[in-house]
Fold:
Amino acid sequence: MTSASFSRIMCAKHEELQNDKNMGREQKRLLFSREEIDNAVIALSKKINSDYRGRNVLLVGILKGCFVFLADLIRHLDIEVTVDFVILRSYGSATVSSGEIEVIKDLHESIEGKDVLIIEDILDTGLTLSHFKEHLLLRDPRSLKVCALLDKKARRKVDFEADYVGLTIEDGFIVGYGIDCDERYRNLPDIWVLTGEGSEA
Ligand code: PRP
Structure:
């Protein structure tokens, strides 16, 4: 299942919960406060500043989920950076992901000979990033690394690790700080996990 399909199914379950008049429990639980997120972003920026000192790095954000994280991260970087974005879509049915990706919006500029750092909100099954990284490697960047704010190892389907990880999380449906459930909740400043009957939190 693609993460987007999983999102739709989980969000439908969440809507059922919201419509349940007998339910008085919390619908979502705070996972990381803004302070915890800020600390993780600052720690990541220190490593990136140190590793790329003296170099010009092209940050490649994978939309849409990356946009809040990238906006915060970039303001802590004191190295030379440029920014570009892609929009990707997973192939496959609602329940089975082939793992292949389709590039809906490609990079604006060439990455040949450049130091490229992919910026992602969450690393889940790993399918998106493993395929996208292979895709970019064909374009001969000087270096290619991945920075993910969240790493959910429990659902990994392929052997893939990010070079920079902000926070490691357990299984569960995450929303907020740019991350959605059926396009909702991206505006929440903190990171939450959806809870209640039928959720995997
Ligand atoms: C999310 C997230 C990653 C991907 C990770 O994107 O932003 O791109 O899923 O999942 P994976 O490791 O299982 O491949 P989503 O498809 O939900 O789209 P969005 O970024 O537009 O929210």
